[in-house]
Amino acid sequence: xxxxxxxxxxxxxxxxxxxxxxxxxxxxxxxxxxxxxxxxxxxxxxxxxxxxxxxxxxxxxxxxxxxxxxxxxxxxxxxxxxxxxxxxxxxxxxxxxxxxxxxxxxxxxxxxxxxxxxxxxxxxxxxxxxxxxxxxxxxxxxxxxxxxxxxxxxxxxxxxxxxxxxxxxxxxxxxxxx
Length: 178
Hints:
The chain is mainly α.
């Protein structure tokens, strides 16, 4: 019974966010995703390279909407994505014949290593998973996936976060670098 009681939760929901905060989160996420998308569609669309991956949507929630969270800090954003991309590509290359195993190993190993390196960034789990379940375009990149789209895209989003999140007087980003 104690086990089931834990699932009840023990605290209230978080406080509401004011409309100005919502607006700045919207502006930052729009500009961050727009920058990555624009670079992709204007510069890389004619190549075999990509710059935008689904996990960047989740990163946008953190680095523009939850800017004080330890999970949203630059170390976590860049480190979590890059480390997870390496793990995901490796898992796919070693276990591509058993995608269920490659996917499971990619995500769980990424979480473990992000914990150990203090770079926990939840979208990193998706970055690792995308390396495994992505299509031929992702798989053909091999370890280039770590640099383009992962490191470059996360860096572009970080630059936008640094610019936008520090415009209002009551917002500051980052809380820490290392």
